[in-house]
């Protein structure tokens, strides 16, 4: 019987899983795998840094809903992959990372470019594999994709020693999965579904608190039907933006530390949180002891460990968000919708009295919020928006009007600065016909700009808006609010680097807007270019702060609406 | 903080012990003892883990997230059998030997090595019995002490009923 190498089996196994694109960087230990990929229909995108390859795989997964794949070598390449893995783990992004490893006889000997990859990534992956027998490759790759994509999605790493990649095997189609300890619950138990319906019927001030689980489970249609049938208003967390269109009358927008007044206060005053695909993150709850103090909690999640972790749930439901909503809809057999006029009127009153606001003076500095509103208006609702971490991320989430899921990509849980550029490249690679616009800060941009070279060379025309306030803006905001204005290590300078020249040096078009009246025309110009990546620098007000704000660990009742409200 | 005993059935695969201990450390749970060994099924191993934690729900749920963990049972001390083995060397001048051997007899401890200045015992049994023995011999001076860590299993339902009747 004819044999193939482990490396050939790896590529064949990736093809078997339907992989279209691998983001990667080659190197010594992974060399054998880079030969058969030449003969494969799989496209390889050569990132400039392994962290970039990892975030590209994440961006691809966010945008397409498919498993993102990154392939890098051993040692420093594998350690550079740790951040994307940790990011994907906390944000439940389905991803498979393939790492080369030194030959098995050298493992444990501190060989050149050796790192204990499976040990280092144990706490940063959903699961990982160290392959010691070439015949395992087809099954291990199949298991890795299965684990990454099912249950609560997440990253899986497969570490492949070089001699295993060079060894020979007789190819076999992956055998049936043998995972006795892994059986995610999809369908919810009928009993808590019934109990949930009872609580919803009795509730006067319910709030649907939904997050990334809705997006991951493709449950947005069921969510809309359920919200309309029950007339329950919906808050969407940072991870769940786009789960319901922001223009919908029941949509309240984002809750949490920088959530809007109505979303935050609706939860505080609620008597029932119908929580689906959320994890009661500290950025949502503030001080958990004062969070939604009057509310009973229904908590549905595919990961049972999230239920009861932060907040006791009166009704715990383990199941896939889409199935849970379908099951709730089946049991909600009311002919007419409940009358929630009083509650909804209260919420509308708050929306009217406490809207998000900023003040763009025609001759003043550019307000970052204005850039986002103009981008939203000119680029349109179909744009895939990718952000980094910090003030720009909060403004993007607050001011962009999302209309559908998978149009918003960001680093939520881990808060990885430098995420936006590579994630945008990955998203655009997966969705080449869609407009992908990253909204980045200058601090974030400086962490991973080299991936724009990847974008130029590979023909992936992403667009990147840099809100350049010359500072680590969020840190500066905290120093201003909580450290008496003693600014420490936050000044990045306005003029270095010259972003237009930097963009041009990387094969992109560089544009710059310095005054409010230049914002619209510059965005329009960026939209007219589609053969190359475009970087647009907006010189924004360096003193602008993100409001509303609930100080870390504080009570959501003490929400600060604007600078004028500061104590 | 109270101690809880978990009996964890895991796939017999490399690094499983590291995964379990690293997860408990990562989630801030302190391991009091951990004993691992093969089961009658060669594909599976059994871990008996004694954890210091205020409540076990999170510990169990987090452990369940490990792909190689097959089943977790929390053992109620009243309804389970717990055993431990200890090797202990006690300082014993010739004049004290008799007294120490006498205590050993009461606890069914077996003297396995006698030297000019010490006696070594092996004791097995319920953890409390072993701890009692340690406290009684502590005044003589403990030279060295090794414990196997606790192993445990649930009682048979039938024996539990008999106990209730008896």
Question: How would you sum up this structure, described in words?
Answer:
The complex is a heterodimer of chains A (567) and B (166). Chain A has 3 domains: 4-169, Rossmann fold (3-Layer(aba) Sandwich); 190-353, TPP-binding domain (Rossmann fold, 3-Layer(aba) Sandwich); 368-547, Rossmann fold (3-Layer(aba) Sandwich). Chain A is globular. Chain A has 23 helices and 20 strands. The longest helix of chain A has 15 residues, at 50-64. The mean pLDDT of chain A is 97. By secondary structure, chain A is an alpha/beta fold. Chain B has 2 domains: 3-75, 2-Layer Sandwich (Alpha-Beta Plaits); 81-152, Alpha-Beta Plaits, CATH 3.30.70. With 166 residues, chain B is of the alpha+beta class. In chain B, 30% of the residues lie in helices and 42% in strands. In chain B, strand 6 (110-114) and strand 7 form a beta hairpin. At the A-B interface, loops of A face helix 1, helix 2 and strand 4 of B.
SSE topology sketch:
The complex is a heterodimer of chains A (567) and B (166).
Chain A lengths: L3 E2 H11 L4 E4 L6 H4 L8 E4 L3 H15 L3 E5 L3 H5 L1 H9 L4 E7 L15 H4 L6 E4 L6 H13 L5 E7 H5 L1 E2 L20 H13 L3 E5 L1 H5 L3 H11 L3 E3 L14 E3 L7 H9 L2 E5 L5 H4 L10 E6 L13 E4 L2 H11 L9 H13 L14 H12 L4 E4 L3 H9 L8 E2 L10 H11 L5 E6 H4 L5 H8 L4 E6 L4 H10 L16 H7 L3 E5 L2 H12 L6 E6 L28
Parallel strand pairs in A: 2-3, 2-4, 4-5, 5-7, 6-7, 9-10, 9-12, 10-11, 12-13, 13-14, 15-16, 15-17, 17-18, 18-20, 19-20
Antiparallel strand pairs in A: 1-8
Helix pairs in contact in A: 1-7, 3-5, 3-18, 9-14, 11-14, 16-17, 16-23
Chain B lengths: L2 E9 L4 H11 L3 E9 L5 E9 L4 H8 L4 E7 L4 E12 L5 H10 L3 E5 L3 E8 L1 H11 L4 E6 L3 E4 L2 H9 L1
Antiparallel strand pairs in B: 1-3, 1-4, 2-3, 5-7, 5-8, 5-9, 6-7
């Amino acid at each position: 019987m004819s044999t193939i190498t482990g490396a050939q089996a790896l590529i064949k196994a990736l093809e078997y899983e339907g992989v279209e694109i691998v983001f990667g960087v080659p190197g010594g230990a992974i060399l054998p795998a880079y030969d058969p990929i030449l003969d494969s229909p799989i496209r390889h995108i050569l990132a400039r840094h392994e962290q970039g390859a990892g975030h590209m795989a994440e961006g691809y997964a966010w945008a397409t809903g498919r498993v993102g794949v990154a392939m890098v070598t051993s040692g420093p390449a594998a350690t550079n992959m740790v951040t994307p893995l940790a990011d994907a783990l906390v944000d439940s992004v389905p991803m498979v990372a393939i790492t080369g490893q030194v030959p098995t006889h050298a493992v444990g000997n501190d060989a050149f470019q050796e790192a204990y990859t499976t040990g280092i990534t144990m706490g940063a992956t959903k699961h990982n594999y160290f392959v010691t027998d070439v015949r395992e490759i087809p099954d291990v790759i199949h298991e890795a994709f299965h684990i990454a994509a099912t249950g609560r999605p997440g990253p899986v790493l497969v570490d492949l020693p070089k001699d295993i990649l060079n060894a020979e095997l007789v190819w076999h189609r992956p055998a049936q999965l043998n995972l006795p300890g892994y059986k995610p619950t999809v369908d919810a138990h009928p009993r808590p579904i019934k109990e949930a319906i009872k609580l919803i019927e009795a509730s006067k001030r319910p709030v649907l608190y939904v997050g990334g689980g809705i997006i991951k489970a493709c449950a947005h249609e069921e969510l809309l039907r359920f919200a309309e049938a029950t007339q329950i208003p919906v808050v969407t967390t940072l991870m769940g933006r786009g789960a319901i269109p922001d223009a919908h009358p029941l949509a309240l927008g984002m809750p949490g530390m920088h959530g809007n007044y109505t979303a935050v206060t609706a939860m505080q005053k609620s008597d029932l949180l119908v929580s689906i695909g959320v994890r009661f993150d500290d950025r949502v709850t503030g001080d958990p002891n004062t969070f939604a103090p009057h509310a009973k909690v229904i908590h549905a999640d595919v990961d049972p460990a999230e239920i009861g972790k932060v907040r006791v749930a009166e009704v715990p439901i383990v199941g896939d968000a889409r199935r849970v909503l379908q099951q709730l809809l089946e049991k909600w057999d009311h002919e007419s919708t409940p009358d929630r006029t009083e509650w909804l009127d209260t919420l509308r009153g708050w929306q009217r009295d406490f809207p998000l606001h900023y003040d763009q003076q025609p001759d003043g500095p550019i307000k970052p919020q204005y850039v986002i509103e103009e981008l939203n208006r000119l680029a349109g609702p179909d744009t895939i928006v990718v952000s980094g971490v910090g003030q720009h991320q909060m403004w993007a989430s607050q001011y962009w009007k999302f209309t559908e899921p998978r149009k918003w990509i960001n680093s939520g849980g881990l808060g990885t600065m430098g995420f936006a550029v590579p994630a945008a490249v990955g998203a655009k690679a997966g969705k080449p016909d869609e407009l992908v616009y990253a909204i980045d800060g200058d601090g974030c941009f400086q962490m991973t700009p080299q991936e724009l070279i990847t974008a130029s060379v590979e023909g992936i025309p992403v667009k990147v808006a840099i809100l350049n306030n010359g500072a680590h803006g969020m840190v500066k905001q905290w120093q201003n609010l909580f450290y008496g204005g003693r600014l420490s290590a936050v000044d990045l300078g306005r003029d270095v680097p010259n972003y237009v020249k930097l963009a041009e040096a990387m094969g992109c078009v560089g544009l710059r807007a310095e005054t409010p009246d230049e914002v619209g025309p510059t965005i329009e110009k960026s939209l007219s270019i589609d053969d190359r990546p475009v970087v647009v620098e907006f010189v924004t007000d360096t003193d602008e702060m993100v409001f509303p704000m609930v100080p870390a660990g504080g009570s959501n009742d003490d929400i600060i609406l604007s600078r004028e409200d500061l104590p | 903080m109270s101690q809880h005993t978990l009996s964890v059935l895991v796939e017999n695969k490399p690094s499983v012990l590291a995964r379990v201990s690293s997860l408990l450390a990562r989630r801030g749970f302190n391991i009091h003892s951990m004993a691992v060994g093969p089961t009658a099924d060669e594909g599976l191993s059994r871990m008996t883990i004694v954890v210091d934690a205020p409540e076990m729900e999170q510990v169990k749920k987090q452990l369940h997230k490990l792909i190689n963990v097959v089943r977790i049972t929390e053992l109620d001390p009243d309804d389970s059998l717990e055993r431990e083995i200890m090797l202990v060397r006690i300082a014993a001048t010739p004049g004290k030997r008799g007294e120490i051997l006498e205590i050993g007899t009461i606890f069914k401890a077996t003297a396995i090595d006698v030297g000019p200045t010490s006696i070594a015992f092996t004791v097995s049994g319920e953890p409390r019995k072993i701890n009692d023995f340690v406290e009684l011999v502590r005044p003589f001076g403990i030279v060295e002490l090794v414990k196997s860590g606790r192993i445990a299993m649930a009682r048979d339902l039938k024996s539990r009923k008999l106990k209730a009747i008896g």
